[in-house]
Structures are given as C-alpha cells and as structure tokens.
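To fix ideas, we now present one chain and its tokenised fold:
***
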Amino acid sequence: PDTSTFATVSRAKEWLSTCTKHHGDCLVPARTELPSRVLVVSNHKVILRETKGEIGRYVALSHCWGRNPVVRTLRANIRDHKENIPWPALSKTFQDAIILTWRLGFHYLWIDSLCIIQDDPDDWAEQASRMAQVFSNAQLTIAASRAADGAGGCFTRYASEPFTLVETDGQVRAVTDPGAWAAFVPAPATTDRDGATRRLRIGPQIEHGLTRAPLLQRAWVLQEQVLSPRLLHFACGELYWECVSHVACECRGWERRAETLQSETRLRKAHGRLVELRHRHRRGGGLAATAMAAKAAEPLERSKDFEAYRTLVEQYMDLDITNDADRLPALSGITFGRPHDEYLAGMWRSMLIESLHWSPSRRGAERRAYRPATYRAPSWSWASIEGHITHVQDFAASSYRSDDNAKPKATVIAVSCTPEGIDVRGRIKGGYLRIRGPIEEATVSKVRAAGANDRAGADTCAELVGKHGHIHGTCLLDVPLVSARGESAEVKKSGRVLCLQISTSAALVLKSIASPPGSYTRVGILITDEQTTHAWFTHSRSEAVFIS
C-alpha cells in the first residue's frame, strides 16, 4: 500500500470526523490557545509564527530525531524562519507532515525542533514545561512511527512478501511460502469454496507494523502518546488510528473499542499501558490522578496508585534517550494530577518510601546501568541511574495491607530537590533526603556478578558481613562490575557501608562521602527475608541519615 495516496488521507479524515463527532471521551476543544510558536503551513510553504495567545486548531508531530541532523530553530535563524523555512531544508518527515496537515484541512503544525529555540536554555526549559498542554490540546498527533530519523518520512510504499490464504476452522490464516510466520486476516470470503487458495500481498500485522516501530522505542515519545487524545500512526506499510475510544488500521482488520485491547499482549508490547494511561489522563487530569484522588489516604487506593506509577517508570526506563540530561524532562508532561503531593526527582512524596525500593535490572538489558557523568538526580532516585529499572515486588504489591509483613520501617524527615530552571518536574541540579530508620554497619566481603539464583535483577551483587556475621540476602549494587578484579565503580572489597532498613525486607546500602560532611550516597539495596532483617535490625539504633 501507498500511505501517501488520497485514499489514505480520506481514511484519516473519516477517523478524525467520527472521533470529533461521536467520541465523548476524546473531546478536545474545537479551538484552544495555540502553543507559543506554531508553523503556518500551506502547500509546500511553511513559516514560523509567534502566537501571543492566539486561539485556533493545530496538529502536532511526534517523530524521531535520529542521528542525521534535522533543521532547527536557533537564535541565529529564528527571524529567517518567521519569513520562510526553505522547503529543501526540511527533512522528508517534516515535509510529509506538512503535506498531510494541509490535506487534512489544518493550517497550524507544531514540531519540537522548529517551535522551540534549540540553543536557548531558558526557552527550551519553558517550552518543555508546556509539553503536556501542547499534545493534550492538539486536534491530532501525527506519529511518524516507522521512521528512525528525518529521512524516513511518514508516507511509504510497501510491498510485503507473498502469502497464501488458508482457511482453517472458519478462519483465514495468511502463511508465507516457507511457513515462517502466519497471521489471521479478516477476509474469509477471499478463499474459494473448493478450498483452493489464492495469491496476494498483504501488509504486516500490528506486531510487525507497530511493535517494532523506531518511534515507540524513544523515551520522549511516551508522554507524547499518553497525552495525545488522537494519534495517527504511519507504520511500516499501513496507517493506524488510535484515540481514547477506538483503535483501527487501514486494512480494517483491527477495529474495536480501545478498552478491549488493554489485556492483549500485542498491544502491551506495542504501547505498554498507553491505553489505560490515556483514559486516566483524559478523565482525571494526569498520569497519577485517579478517580479516588480525594481519598489518597486510603491504603488500597495508594497501593494501586503506586503500582501504576511504578510500572510506568519501569517501562519508561526501557526506552532510549539521546541526551542523558533529558530523562526527567521527557517524563514531566505526565507527572501532573496530584495537586496535594510533591514531585521529587521522579518520585512522589506520599509514596517515597515505596519508591526507594528500586534496583537496576538485568531484564532484557542490552546495555548495563551506569550513573551519567553529568549530575541528573540525587542517588536515592531511580533517575540517578541510566538503564533498566525494576522495583522490589514483594513490597510494592501489597505495601499498605495491615496483615502484610512488608511494612515501612523508616520515616522521611525532610526531602528537597532544586530545579535547574522553572520546571520543577524537569532537570534538577541538587537534592537531598533526610531519613530516619534502624541502621547497621557492614563490610563488603565480596563483589561479584549476579547469578541466576539472585533475587531481583541487578548486574552486580555484594556479599556483606555485619556484627553477627555473614548477612543472608541479596545486596544489589546500583552500578555493575567494571574490572576483572571483582570491583564495582562505587563499592570495593573490604569497603565499609551503612545499611538503613526501609521496610521489613529491604535496606538501603549507603557509602559515606566527603561532601557535604556526614552525608551518604546510595550504592545499592539489600533484599532479605523477614527473619534475617528481624535478627539484624531488632536491636539496632535508629538514626537520621542525610543522603545526597
């Protein structure tokens, strides 16, 4: 199929019209305040406009920057861009998005690289803080899902390998010649009554067309997809529609109500929890908002809230990001919705003890965890690590049940994060946690690569010896082995550490640092059973510890 044809555009118009007129959950104001800057588009012409509070309708573009440079608005060329952005200077993805915007009947398009002054830190911070409004208020988000960079474009002409249609049990299965893989297709009438098969070419199914799409592997895109009420995916060989109420594909083989897909493995692989999160955002005002927000103190609802946010963080940290410093800003748009809570380096104050139970994960880890060279977050936050993240399951799953033995054992005395700019959910330049709990000193007897029998999933473990001898449990280190001598970048054999119990089955592993005096940095987490922690911490003194 050719996704640049007028038939494809007509199909997109049909989806958009149906959604606008009939989908109550997808309502977007017919006219809203435009972003600070938009592109004014016509057929093969585009200029940049400062909107100054203008009201109108606009489309947003979600795309991969990739390795190839894309045209950007800079302090040196913004005046020129307000006069004209030369068509040849635009990438194919930008050109396709402009053409599509025009064909759909819109005059305004928002593209991040052109609507944000890329070499102005103040403008970048201000516009990044408004990302939630940009995508939430867009009439439509065009997702260049198939393109790894600007050269890939939106439109494509695709020819799949040949298939044979075979009818089995009243269903039609498309099978490749060698039988490499098969997919059910919604066209039983295409099989002859005598059982003969006919040859044809069909596009890939959702698991091939969207699951592996380059755009969906990018960290910035998660919030764009959660916040957008309507998405038009240009995938490999086919167009996909997704809104709060409905999902569909160009071949009409994948049409149903959005909520019916929440339990399907294929959609979870392609989008994670996007359908659920989009519902919550449109109905409740943000990622962490729930229908029970007013009852945040209720144990069960707090547990559910943490479970949802924890899952999001784990999935988010599986996504790629080009600039390590963008990890918190790229999530900021979907961290609204808890007006009486405090957001701290990727964590919520009301759920801080639970949130400390994170560890780097081996799960599917193509890359090993590391602390970015440039400061990104205090050591107690998962945002201080770049890599896959997991949370201690036994605590998180039942954190507030009175009959459960995984209960908080520490108390937060004070906590603070200092933002780098105006966005408190964006980049930060400092932070600390003052926490009180049972403490015990220990010595590192061995640092080793984690094995299959170790709990959770870090790359590197340490064996600890305390006052009562060897500590049974798994000490998961935040940074993996870096030498054949069995040393971690942060923890060495015979080194002294401080263990601070935070729950019945877990303790933070801390290392003393010189600045500020008397403070510690997190280097790992110790996971044990109730019997071990009871024996080790029962008679321990409780102290307040400063962690930076």
User: Anything to note?
Assistant: The mean pLDDT is 77. The radius of gyration is 26 Å.
